[in-house]
Amino acid sequence: MITTNRRRRNLGACDCCRARRTKCDGSRPKCGTCARRKVDCIYPEVPSPTQSRVEIELCTIRDRLNSIEKLFSSAQQDRCCLVKQVPAAIPISGWGREQNGKVDELRSSSVPYMVIQNAAFMELVGLESDLARRMTDAERAMVPTPYPLSLGVRKFFSSGSSPISALTAFFNKIHSWYPILSLRLRDKLFNIGDLPKSASERCLYLILVAIGSLAQYDSLHAALRERPDAPLMEEALLLLPTVLLESGPTALQCLIFLSTYYLCLVKPCQAHDYILIASMRAQNLLKSASLNPEDQELIRRALWVTLLIEIELAIQLDLASSGIWTLDNEIPLPSWSQHVDEVLPSPFSTPVDTPGRPFSSPQSPSQLLSYFLAEIAMRRMLQRCTTSTRILPSGKQIFARVISTELELQLEQWHSHLPEYLRFDRYCISECNINPQLLFLRTQYYAYRASILWPAVHQVMVEREQYDTTLLSFCLEFYRSYNHFVLSAVACIPQCLPNTWTLYASVFIITMAALRAKESPGLSSIITPEILKGIHAAVQLFEDAAELGPSLHTMQGILAEAVAKMSRGISP
Q1: 390 falls in which pLDDT band (50, 70, 90)?
Q2: What's the rounded Cα separation, in Å, for the pair 315 and 312?
């Protein structure tokens, strides 16, 4: 084989050797030739290669991951104890120290994230930038309906109302959302002949029966007209000062289910007040070294419930924070416990004849735990990265296809890991034999997917005639996700009593985004009759919501007016 010795050009040669065409050994700071000649040795700067579009996208993702890692590492260094000091005033709840930057981002970012807190989004859809604060003030200013005097809990029992039926309704329809009661306590609640003697157990018993008495009705409107809960809550609230002096898991459960009670009444601010107290109480209890394994598991579950409730309420309204989200990496996930998750007593399985509402058969403990873990995973995804954007050198935020693909992949992986009884068809909305937890997860799935695709819609709206036509496919997927979301929410709300307010708020905010985008010249071509059907389904959903509270009344009025303008061909 013939070989040739071809002289290779030394790309690292200094300027002097290059000019004299002599061999340069590349030594730094001065090569051998320049050292012998006693002349200055200067090396040319090597230009960096131009990055491709894909490399720029990957660098953006890498920078985001590095910033997230820095946030978590700095948070861990600052946590010398489990509970951190809560800032004096934080406008949005659900985030702790590292989430405060996210709060500011939501409120002031140029990308109008689909939350009521975001001023840019409110201006985009033609609403006041302080709508969240106004709705919070309206909820706070609403005078609560006083409980009838001298009713007493005895009158509830003597009127023919069955506490066992109410408890069964509670466990069938409410407890599956927040499985924090132990087997021992559930046995005791079903088998007591009279009210418990302990203040915390008595208070908890009354709260659970009150919630169950609401869940027995065929509709929330009917329950609010009759108010079977009134005498029970009258006595439960009298016990609350004593309960606050106790420090066990039962007292903590009282606070959580008080929050749940107000969620069922569609009173988000009152529910948030009690969940904040529960959050701080749970964080303190978890620091105790004297807890037995059962109590530790119950308190861990209670912490996750407070986290889920707090963030669901505070993402839209102007509310304070307990800082509990900073602990999501430190709180162990719920796990199987013999005392908490064994088979329930037979009275639990007694169906309640509730006309108008399909009966939800009790789920097994493993199914309850599976849903709980699935909901925690979904909330973590929503909390940590909900927008697929990148920042140009000019500072402008635009839609990032690579990040969008990554987020959708995470969502599909979450769906693929769901157990069979919670897995849903992502491409077909079917209402046959669907349990409430599946309905809620499915609704969250479509809301999350719409959030991923929303920046593409916004970019087309902003760029008008100069938009990138390849974005239209993403915009079409946004509207498909929106349609599935609305149809799923319509089926979900009647069966998901504790999530009523948050579901209505999500329907309102995403529908306002869909309405405003529809008026954009670049998007009018992709609007189909099916999309318009979804918008009208959202308006119809709100027809009876105005009676449930001032914030929902405000949303209903805004949505009805926006759709009326759409029908008349008037832009927002």
Answers
A1: confident
A2: 6
Query: What predicted TM-score, i.e. pTM, was given to this entire model?
Result: 0.77
331 alpha carbon, distance to own chain's centre: 18
Residue 318 three-state SS: coil
In contact, 355 and 197? CB cutoff 8 Å: no
Within 10 angstroms of residue 446's Cβ, the number of other Cβ atoms is 23
Average pLDDT on 302-313 reads 90
Residue with tokens 């009805």, as numbered in its chain:
560
* Number of neighbouring beta carbons within 10 Å of residue 461: 20
Helices (H), 315-435: 338-341, 365-384, 401-416
Is residue 465 helix, strand or coil?
A: helix
> How many beta carbons lie within 10 A of that of residue 402, not counting itself?
16
- The CA distance from 264 to 435, in Å, is 18
Reply yes or no on whether the pLDDT at 535 is more than 50: yes
Residues pairing with 181 in the sheet = none
Radius of gyration (C-alpha) of the chain in whole angstroms: 29
Q: Which of 141-145, 390-394, 505-509 has the lowest mean pLDDT?
A: 141-145
| pLDDT for position 326 | 77
The CATH superfamily of 13-44 is Zn(2)-C6 fungal-type DNA-binding domain (4.10.240.10)
Cis-peptide, bond into residue 29, ω within 30° of zero: yes
Check pLDDT > 50 for residue 475.
yes
- pLDDT above 70 covers a percentage of the chain that reads 75
List the chain domain ranges. Answer: 13-44, 144-371, 385-567
Q: Which residues of 78-87 are buried (b: 16+ CB within 10 A; e: fewer)?
A: eeeeebbebe
> CA torsion sign, 434 to 438 to 444 to 446?
negative
Q: Are 254 and 305 in contact (CB under 8 A)?
A: no
Three-state SS annotation for 116-132:
CCCHHHHHHCCCCCCHH
User: For residue 142, which amino acid is it?
Assistant: M
Write out the DSSP string of 95-162: --TTTHHHHHHHHH-SS--SSTT-HHHHHHTT--TTHHHHHHHHHHHSPPPPPPTT-HHHHHHHTT--
Amino acid making up residue 345: P
How far apart, in whole angstroms, are the C-alpha atoms of residue 484 and residue 443?
8
Q: Please give the average per-residue pLDDT across 530-534, as a whole number.
A: 89
d(CA 89, CA 74): 21
> Residue 454 to residues 227, 344, 475, 511, 558: CA-CA distances in angstroms?
41, 44, 8, 12, 21
Kindly state the helix (H) or strand (E) to which residue 391 belongs, with its residue range. Answer: strand 389-391
